[in-house]
Design a protein that fits this description.
Layout: H1 12-15, H2 19-45, H3 47-70, H4 79-111, H5 114-144, H6 152-182, H7 189-201, H8 207-223, H9 229-251, H10 263-301, H11 311-317, H12 320-334, H13 336-358, H14 367-381, H15 394-419
Helix pairs in contact: 2-3, 2-4, 3-6, 3-7, 4-5, 4-6, 5-6, 5-8, 5-9, 6-7, 6-8, 7-15, 8-9, 8-10, 9-10, 10-11, 10-13, 10-15, 12-13, 13-14
Amino acid sequence: MSDAVRPGVVRAAALAHKPAFWVILALLAAGGLRIAQITWRFLDAYPIATLTAVVLFALLAVPFWLFVSELDFLEREPASLRVLAFAWGGLVATTVSIPASTALDNLIAKLGSPALAADWGAALAGPTVEETVKTLGVVAIVLIARAQVNSVLDGVVYGALVGLGFQIVEDVVFAIGAVAQAGQGDQVQPVVTTLLVRGFLAGVWSHTLFGALAGAGIGYLVVNPDRTRRHRIGMAALALFGAWASHVLWNSPFFRDGLGNGALALLAVLLFKGLPPLLLTLYLVRRAHDAEAAYYVAKLATLRDPSLITPDELRVLGSGSRRAAARRHAGARAGRRARVAVRRLQRAQARLAVDLSRAPAQAHETEAASEVRAHRSRLESLGHPEAVEGVRSWRHTVSTAGTTAVAIAVIWVALSALGGG
């Protein structure tokens, strides 16, 4: 199977024939130049703080990137388009939003009042500009690679990565702004504080989440041709409004003074502002994942070839939790190599499902089918021939509880350090 048709591969030569590709490339280049200029000024004034901020927030981006990239396990988005989405958020959306948000904030002050702008400028100007420009990043991907956006979940992933790119670059800018505002020279303490506030506490339900909501709307618009155009546009607009409203709530002056000075008070504010969009996004992701899984599992079920996928593996492959349980079971039964082999088998089976959806008659002869058989042979040699979930282990329950406890402890320490108590 050639790279030209392999799922997850996008050739630059194919994109170069599209005018939108060159427009997007020019925008990325202009945004990159502007960010480079800003970074150079930061480095000149605060070299240690700037390098610290870049490193810390880059490290923070890694788990978010990995998590978002894994959302669409069955048909992973091409790495090139994931990088493009991240770059759009970090280079284009930020450089457009900074001057545009300032201009809109000034307009609010003129049409309303300086007091209105002081209270609500950040809540109205920022979300209006930023969510629009970030959503255009998902639209840009549709324009240059329409075939790679074939589910709502694709829109969620691309939108989340656009938001992640925006969030990381904006956080670095805020961190250096905090250093300058502190007026104590090239110090890293304001950078660490910004990391706690904007990274750990706001990172879960900030720009990544808002981008995912808007991206779901673009995905729905693209992949539901059976619906009327008015309906699809309406749903996309509703999703964008949801992202905008969530951002407005997050930036709003509600509870600006908090509910007190303790960690519990800060946590209550975070939950009030961030939990609704988080739950909504999780719901959309779950529905989109289940719909996609049902489609691809049904394709695999037509094979009736246990060397490619067994009935029990069909049940496992459609569920993220069951896939993880099958990998744990393999590791407990036959060691780390079996766990790795099961993961690779699942990846190959997912690619085979995509092959089936595109060329059913040739699926048995594709590269993915060969990979499935190779990983199956590897598992058989390890004495674990089938990627199935085992009995739930008490060790997994303890591990999950321990991980949750550690996460809560980290959040609690951060809240206590920032809010007292």
